[in-house]
TrEMBL record:
ANK repeats lie at residues 67-99, 98-121. GO terms for molecular function: kinase activity. Keywords: ANK repeat, Kinase, Repeat, Transferase. This is Kinase, NEK. InterPro entries: Ankyrin_rpt, Ankyrin_rpt-contain_sf. SUPFAM superfamilies: Ankyrin repeat (SSF48403). It comes from the Eukaryota. Pfam families: Ank_2.
Length: 192
């Protein structure tokens, strides 16, 4: 775990057969994101240690912490594009316990390049709605004012009713360009 956190490729290589797939014990944030029983791959992905991710993905790719988060979700959240590229095949299309995806993390933070990589695999997925209505990556991008992300997500999510929520948020926040993009979609439920 510590070798992955530091990005120590040689130490990870030496320990991989002995400790690959081993989970942290209990709650831990290791000076970073909160994860419950996470793995070294998640820590490396969160820190953007691409070479460590490359080594660990074969041993730990697809594993989840106790909140159902994946290494891809941590990499997408922080904008580590090269790590996302290494993880996408094994971990895309996964939702955590609240329905969040790697795409939602990227869209919320305005990581346009990562949104491009994930939109076809995860576009249109919705959160579980445990705090009210469900949301999509489009809603999260609109809330953050991330125009380029909205452009990438709009066509994929245009037939999902959360477009209305995204449009309302953009209007409320005064994001004129996003309002224009979303108003121009004309999904079946907006046509009178």
């Amino acid at each position: 775990m510590r070798a992955a956190e530091r990005g120590d490729v040689e130490a990870v290589r030496a320990l991989i057969l002995l400790q690959g797939g081993e989970r942290m014990r209990g709650d831990n944030c290791m000076n970073g994101p909160y994860m419950l029983e996470g793995i070294a791959l998640m820590i490396a992905a969160d820190r953007g240690h691409t070479e460590v991710v490359r080594l660990l993905v074969e041993y730990e790719g697809g594993m989840r912490d106790n909140y159902d988060n994946t290494a891809l979700m941590f990499a997408a959240d922080k904008g580590h594009t090269e790590c996302v590229k290494l993880l996408i095949e094994k971990e895309s299309g996964v939702q955590n316990e609240t329905g969040w995806t790697a795409l939602m993390n990227a869209a919320r933070n305005g990581h346009t390049e990562i949104v491009k990589l994930l939109v076809e695999k995860e576009g249109g997925m919705q959160t579980a709605g445990i705090w009210g209505s469900s949301e999509t990556a489009l809603v999260m991008a609109a809330r953050g004012g991330h125009t380029e992300c909205v452009k990438l997500l709009a066509e994929k999510e245009k037939e999902i009713s959360t477009v209305i929520a995204a449009l309302d948020i953009a209007k409320e926040k005064g994001y004129i360009e996003i309002v224009s993009i979303l108003s121009g979609l004309r999904p079946h439920f907006l046509v009178h």
